[in-house]
Amino acid sequence: MNNTNISALTDICYECGNCFKCCPVQAITMVQNDFGCSHAFINEAQCLHCGQCKEICPACNPIEKHTPRIAYAAISKSPEANHSTSGGIFFELASIIIELGGVVIGAAYDFKTWAVRQVAVSKKTDITFLQGSKYVKSDVGDSYQKAKNFLELGKWVLYSGTPCQIAGLKRYLQKDYSTLLTVDLICHGTPPAKLFKDYIQYLEKKRHIVISDFAFRFKEYGHQHIGQYTYKKGNRIRKKPLYSAESSYFSLFLSSAILSDSCYTCDFADTARVGDITLGDFWGVRTELPRFFTDNSLPLDSSVSALMVNTVRGAEMADKIKGHLIYQPVDYDQIVRNNSRLNHQKNRDSSVHDILLTSYKDNGYNGIAKYFQKHADLKKYKMRIRRNMPQFLKKMIKKLFIEKPF
Q: Is residue 250 domain-resident?
């Protein structure tokens, strides 16, 4: 590999496509591996070795990060916030941008193809399409170019995405715009889009249904990892809860077994952030802020956002929405210690990942489902034994494994 060739960056490619878009001779294509992860491939016969691809690559050229200036536990007062997974802060930020005549770009489902794409909206009623957690890699597509076009016209743009997508946007733009607000998410990692699409098709085929709507987290079931999907069977339309422990895709995502390659070497699983504002779940809020709910007359199962303000621009926008929030300033460490993705990468269990990759390559999503079911049944069997075990035996086993010989 020469010093301008990015073809070898397969495991750390963020799949932003910047290199593909900037190549003056179209020498770069984005190719997929067996798991559905994309990376750049350079045709050496066409390559000019100009280095433009490396210059615009966020993996080759790290973006400046910012230590949060202030952090909050926050919940939106607006009823529209119910469409959000956590406290609805994204809705309030998006609303302000649209009121300023701007556009908001974020991840939305395409229910016809089951892709997740970065799309632009300019109406408040359309913000709902961008709300809610989507545990799948979204396609950047031409969203960077659209953002640039709006910015060049002097319009406000809110771009929301994973930290690597924000880094890709900043590398693409090559300069700062005073009307750009970037919002990065506390990201667990994202499975390849192909895997999610195959999972939906697997469910439809297995249950003889047609799925028309899907949510990984559904607030009516509380703050836990319980989703819901809408499906049609015959002439009837029904809704079904999606329990993470019973869903192969959901469960393997949470265990970090099916993430994209670059997620295991993520440079953004860090306390320093690339966006003007960082949003995510405030896990552990009931322990960290035991009076937050009672003092604000909130139900104890309310979903609360962690709102981190990282830049001056982020602070200005956060100030604009405070009147729409119930919030409390917090020490940043209170958020970090309850969210591991703010201080370290996810480890890849190579043995499990390789088994899943081989199963997927040989048998499609059926192979992954069979692997999950086998281990899920074993887990249920162990839990059943534990439940029925006499208390004295539980104590003996616990003592055996906890006590040290020295």
A: yes
Question: Do 14 and 102 sit in the same domain of this protein?
Answer: no
Judge if 23 and 107 occupy the same domain: no
| pTM (predicted TM-score) | 0.90
Does 3 map to a domain?
Answer: no
Q: How many CB atoms lie within 10 A of CB 8?
A: 13
207, 300 contact by CB (below 8 A):
no
CA distance 175 to 262: 25
CA 158 to chain CA centroid, Å, is 17
Q: Are 302 and 88 in contact (CB under 8 A)?
A: no
One-letter amino acid at 303 equals: S
Number of domains the chain contains: 2
CA nearest to 277, candidates 96, 56, 108: 96
Residue 37 C-alpha from the chain's centroid: 15
Measured CA to CA, the distance from residue 178 to residue 403 in angstroms comes to 60
| Residue range 151-169, pLDDT digits in tens | 999 999 999 999 999 999 9
Residues 80 and 203 occupy one common structural domain: yes
Token pair recorded at residue 381: 């069997």
Q: For residue 40, give its domain range.
A: 10-55
355 belongs to a structural domain: yes
